[in-house]
Amino acid sequence: MVFLWAFLVGGFICVIGQLIMDLFKKTPGFTLSLMVVIGAILDGFGLYEPLIDFAGAGATVPITSFGNSLVHGALQEAEIYGIIGVATGMFEVTSSGISAAIIFAMIGALIFKPKG
């Protein structure tokens, strides 16, 4: 049952993004940015963590989870270090994912030759 809920919730998040692009004629960049902001707002109100507890990977894999991670890290570090923690917390929580994306993109660029 866990896999079904992960599939349905993750699919629903993706459907929302696709509808934004198709119905409102928005660019993928706009849609990605909007989804990150939506994830951040939901975490700010404490609504994204229960969604992660319910749907697991269905809520952590889509781009909305990145916004959740930014706000979650900032709020955690702000409790400990105050206003300085807001800036450092965002980067501390998301740095491993961003670093992995950069490293794997570099490896992919070195191994495969783009067709142009």
Distance between the termini: 45 Å
Average pLDDT rating: 92
Give the overall silhouette: globular
Classify the secondary structure makeup into a structural class. mainly alpha
Largest sheet: none
Number of helices: 6
Number of strands: 0
Question: Strand-and-helix sequence, N→C?
Answer: HHHHHH
Tell me roughly what share of residues is in helical segments: over 70%
The proportion of residues in beta strands is under 5%
What count of structural domains?
1
Spans of 5+ residues with little confidence (pLDDT < 50)? none
Q: State Rg.
A: 16 Å
Keywords: Membrane, Transmembrane, Transmembrane helix
Organism: Amphibacillus xylanus (strain ATCC 51415 / DSM 6626 / JCM 7361 / LMG 17667 / NBRC 15112 / Ep01)
InterPro entries: Spore_V_AE, SpoVA
Transmembrane segments: 6-24, 31-48, 80-112
Textual characterization of the structure:
With 116 residues, the chain is mostly helical. The protein has one domain (2-111). 84% of the residues lie in helices and 0% in strands. It has six helices and no strands. It has helices at residues 2-23, 28-44, 48-55, 57-60, 64-81, 83-111. The radius of gyration is 16 Å and the shape is globular. It starts with a helix and ends in a 5-residue tail after the last helix. The mean pLDDT is 92. This is Stage V sporulation protein AE. The chain crosses the membrane at residues 6-24, 31-48, 80-112. It comes from Amphibacillus xylanus (strain ATCC 51415 / DSM 6626 / JCM 7361 / LMG 17667 / NBRC 15112 / Ep01). Keywords: Membrane, Transmembrane, Transmembrane helix. InterPro entries: Spore_V_AE, SpoVA.
